[in-house]
Amino acid sequence: xxxxxxxxxxxxxxxxxxxxxxxxxxxxxxxxxxxxxxxxxxxxxxxxxxxxxxxxxxxxxxxxxxxxxxxxxxxxxxxxxxxxxxxxxxxxxxxxxxxxxxxxxxxxxxxxxxxxxxxxxxxxxxxxxxxxxxxxxxxxxxxxxxxxxxxxxx
Length: 154
Prior knowledge:
- The structure is a single chain.
- The protein starts with a helix and ends with a helix.
- Helices cover 73% and strands 0% of the residues.
- The protein is mostly helical and 154 residues long.
- Helix 1 (3-40) runs antiparallel to helix 2 (47-61), helix 1 (3-40) runs antiparallel to helix 6 (132-150) and helix 2 packs parallel to helix 6.
């Protein structure tokens, strides 16, 4: 296993831990909100925002294990991934790579633009929330390149 594959594996494990943390935070905060609202008659305005942003990080971190396992959403209507000719696999991977690069570029634009305004409930810069988009794209690209190194369209 080459150094790049080891790095990709470690980053994939970090993404899985990040997904777990995002899910636990969202579930825990939402559970606490329900308890506070129904038992004590008070709630917090920032909980809905935190759960939404946790879902964003969960989805973006999920690009890493999905790309690594070749589980990115694809249409099997015409070609099944396992039985498709090599040129179709190359086209599919190129399209996935293109989409991930678009996520990185446009996500970086959103991060820089979002630093100028703050979220209404948590009062953190939107750019901090938007960092999930280019991070997820970078993790996905790393896993896609690693997949090409380990088993190129085979």
